[in-house]
Write a structure and sequence with these properties.
Jelly Rolls; 6-stranded antiparallel sheet; 33 strands; 8-stranded parallel beta barrel; 12 helices; 3 domains
């Protein structure tokens, strides 16, 4: 038996390193993480969870370890992460857990740093992520109702969890891994009501049954909600099987909400747990400035929580990262659509690029939180940034002239009906045309550019929340309506019907339709830049570098669009609306030598693009 144990340990050592070998030899001892006497108990001793959210989906894989080391240096002992469903099943039935999407490797990285893990497995997540983490193809299903006991919906959830959850079983703490908490759904009390709607309660019970089918019951299951909605979020009132936890903003005292949590949970089984302690907030395109708060607020709010030795919590966020590509989400605020910026800095103590967050008053927010938590772990060296200077955009290509369509159809079909998850949809008509078009925010999803014979003559945006009329030249022979999916709503009742395109025809006629997800730019036909009329246009330049470091691309002089570097989609920019005016370009996306930079500017501006060392928010 001893020989076999040593052989197994040697294999684990070769594959995972010292951490896994050490853990495997400890499996003979009791490894448990349970709830007793209103405390978390780890290995028989009371334990306080001091966690922070870091989303692997918003951090380049090459930086996972660095960001987790910085979180540990803050004074955290646990990492919390969402598992976005649409990140792993963009195409129905095609599950992707490789490379940047290898959540299991992320969990292993945390374990190697002696960090525990709280998994938020959804299926809904919010997180200012596109469609709240739901795959776009769900919106194409007949008779489907999201986030309740709907068979078409739960069938899809079950197939996803059948692919996901079995691979987490060996990551559970009792089996030698770091996972101690598994959250079901997210803030369900802000959407459904388990106390008055049996279908909602049955939905949550179905999630628990499915999770325990694959993970068993030797892990602590949780729900989360603002304290006022605990009864709506969970059907497990005074039931030991699932722990209800709370969330909310930094405050001077958390006692009232913890008291409500205790009154809801089973007697003696209610450890104080604040699953989202909001260190900051998110930012929308068009906001006056980036969300931020003072370092004093950071420190005081976290210190008030940490002063209670029995209070467990998770900072939301410890490190926000970046919503690369088309992953940023949107909200409906007071009836108005607002799309989130690409940066998910969140004014977290570890900023988007890994540096210390600077509070609104200019003081160090990272240090304020670290002092509040008494963090002593060594912080990695500060990231190095380079300003590589101007990037000359010498080649161009009109978007509408390129062979980039991935589907062709006819009629006023939405992206979902076309099987398209993101990007743009082009509607083209000819023949007799009206002298003007009127677009309504109730039927436009989300932004349209009107092109008469290839020339931009106007645009409308759902988020402006007003009807917009665009005049058409009397000589127009071809009308193109280029509709942009600016991000699917990810929170509230509005997410259930956020189809993209036109919900009602803006004019008579049957257009031809093309899908333009812009995932593959290899077929673009480049030409030297020459003056031309306003129209959506690609530009290409080259960035030659000898040393590879993090940088930012400043979009001063551009309008609105997307930037790719070496084929990697950095996300959306909207220079003319702000407040984000730079896109983060991490070193792992670059290479020594020549780097290809492609810009899609939707107005066709060929203004300046430059690599700079710091972000610009004004």
């Amino acid at each position: 038996m001893a020989v076999a144990t040593c052989a197994i340990a040697l294999l684990l050592l070769q594959h995972y390193g010292c951490w896994a070998a050490t853990q495997s030899l400890r499996l003979g001892r009791a490894r448990s993480f349970v709830v007793q006497d209103d405390r978390f108990v780890k290995g028989g001793a009371p334990y306080t969870v001091r966690s922070g959210s870091v989303h692997y989906s918003r951090v380049p894989r090459a930086y996972w370890r660095d960001r987790l080391e910085r979180a540990k240096a803050l004074g955290l002992n646990t990492i919390t992460t969402y598992v976005p469903w649409n990140f792993h099943e963009e195409v129905e039935g095609d599950f992707d857990f490789a490379h940047e999407k290898d959540v299991f490797a992320f969990v292993d990285t945390a374990a190697k740093l002696d960090l525990l893990v709280m998994l938020r497995i959804g299926p809904y997540m919010c997180g200012e992520w596109d469609f709240g983490g739901f795959p776009a193809w769900l919106a194409t299903k007949d008779n489907i109702t999201l986030r309740t006991h709907s068979k078409p919906y739960l069938d899809a959830v079950d197939r996803y969890w059948d692919a996901l959850l079995p691979r987490f079983k060996q990551k559970l703490y009792g089996r030698g891994g770091p996972v101690v908490l598994v959250q079901l759904e997210n803030e369900f009390g802000d959407y459904g009501d388990c106390s008055s709607n049996e279908a909602d309660a049955a939905y949550m019970r179905h999630l628990y049954a499915k999770a325990t089918q694959h993970l068993g019951t030797d892990v602590v299951y949780t729900t989360v909600s603002p304290a006022r909605n605990l009864h709506k979020a969970s059907p497990w009132r005074r039931d030991a099987r699932v722990l209800a936890t709370v969330d909310g903003a930094l405050a001077d005292s958390y006692a009232a909400d913890f008291a409500l949590q205790k009154s809801f949970n089973a007697p003696g089984l209610s450890p104080k747990m604040w699953t989202e302690l909001w260190t900051g907030w998110y930012t929308h395109w068009g906001d006056a400035q980036a969300a931020n708060r003072t370092a004093r607020d950071y420190g005081a709010g976290v210190a008030a929580m940490a002063s209670d030795a029995n209070a467990s919590f998770s900072l939301y966020m410890a490190h926000g990262g970046t919503s690369f590509a088309f992953w940023s989400g949107a909200n409906i605020l007071d009836g108005t659509y607002v799309a989130d910026v690409t940066s998910y800095d969140y004014s977290a103590p570890i900023s988007e690029d890994g540096t210390h967050q600077i509070g609104a008053e200019g003081q160090d927010g990272f240090e304020a939180v670290r002092q509040a938590l008494g963090g002593t772990a060594v912080e990695p060296p500060a990231p190095v940034f380079r300003a590589y200077g101007p990037i000359a955009l010498r080649e161009s290509a009109d978007l509408l002239d390129q062979d980039l369509a991935t589907c062709f159809s006819r009629g006023w079909r939405t992206q979902e009906q076309l099987g398209q998850a993101h990007g743009f949809t082009r509607y083209t008509l000819g023949g007799a045309l009206p002298d003007h078009l009127t677009f309504s925010p109730s039927t436009l999803r989300d932004r349209v550019q009107v092109l008469a014979d290839g020339v931009l003559v106007g645009s409308a945006y759902r988020g402006d929340n007003k009807n917009v009329s665009v005049a058409l030249p009397s000589t127009t022979k071809r009308l193109d309506l280029l509709v942009e999916n600016c991000a699917r709503v990810g929170y509230g009742r509005e997410l259930v019907d956020d189809r993209k395109g036109f919900l009602a025809p803006p004019l008579a006629g049957t257009p031809t339709v093309q899908c333009l997800p812009l995932d593959d730019l290899s077929r673009i036909q480049w030409q030297p830049v020459t003056p031309g009329p306003a129209a959506p246009r690609y530009y290409r330049g080259r960035l030659a570098i000898d040393d590879v470091h993090d940088t930012y691309l400043d979009t001063r002089g551009l309008s609105k669009g997307i930037i790719w570097v070496n084929g990697r989609n950095l996300g959306r920019f909207w220079e003319t609306r702000g407040p984000q005016h730079t896109l983060y370009l991490p070193a792992p996306f670059l290479k020594r030598g020549v780097n290809e930079v492609v810009v899609l500017d939707l107005d066709g501006r060929v203004g300046s693009l430059a690599s700079v060392a710091r972000p610009r928010w004004r």
